[in-house]
Structure formats: C-alpha cells, structure tokens
Model the fold of this input.
Amino acid sequence: MIWSCNPSKKLDKLNAKHPELLAKFCRDTFPCVLSKVDTITSFDTNYITIECPGYEAKDTVLITKYLKGSAVLKYLDKTNTIIKTIKDSAEIRACELELKSVNKKLNESKELNTKLQNKVTAKNRFITWLIIAVLCAIIGNILQLKK
Done:
C-alpha cells in the first residue's frame, strides 16, 4: 500500500482518505522514546502578615487595655517539578542511519588510505633500489677508469 513507484503521492492520497491509518503506521514504526526524566525540587519560604483587630482586655483592677498588632506566619513551601524529555524515534532512527553511512564511508576511506600507503611504500622501495643500482654503476665506472 505504501510502497510503489511514487511513494510520496501514495502517502498523500492515503493521508487524505485515511489519516488514522497513516498515523497508526507512523506511530507503530516510529514510537516516541522517553529520553530522560528530571525532578526539580524547590523550597520557598513565604511570610504572611495577618492584621489582628484590637480587643479589650479587662484587668481585675478595672483597667481597660486595648491591644493591637499583627501576626506574621512563616511557612515553607515545597514544590516538585517533573520534567520529561521525549524524543521522536524517527529522528533517532534517521541519526542512526546517517551514523551507519558515515561509519561505512570512514571504513572505506581507511581502506583506501592503507592501499595508498602500501603503494607509496612499494614505490619508495623501488626508488631506493634504483638509487643503489645507479650508485653501484657509478662506482663500477670509477673503478674501471682507474685501471
């Protein structure tokens, strides 16, 4: 159904007629992957000021006092935040395929490098023996001239 000579047109037609089928195929083929979970715990100290209305206090000696003031309430607020990072497995799969192709190219380059180094080594050996032969010929000519 999806594989044909022109897959992009087939996918467009399939998406137009049956988007749920295409979505199910993509979800099954490339599921989402939970890559990491972080938990952040934060502590905040909060202060609440409560204004108290005045009240009348009577003493045994019949002295009336009016007391006014405020109360400060301190409490510690703990907050847990859970962060989940979800990656698309299609992206991960594309990266894996690209990594495989790059590794293949790297191995091919290493093999080519080894072949070229072997060729250079062989040429260097040939040139070395050629120089030795030329030197032997020169020395032989010099010895013949001295006689």
In short: The mean pLDDT is 79. The chain has three helices and two strands.
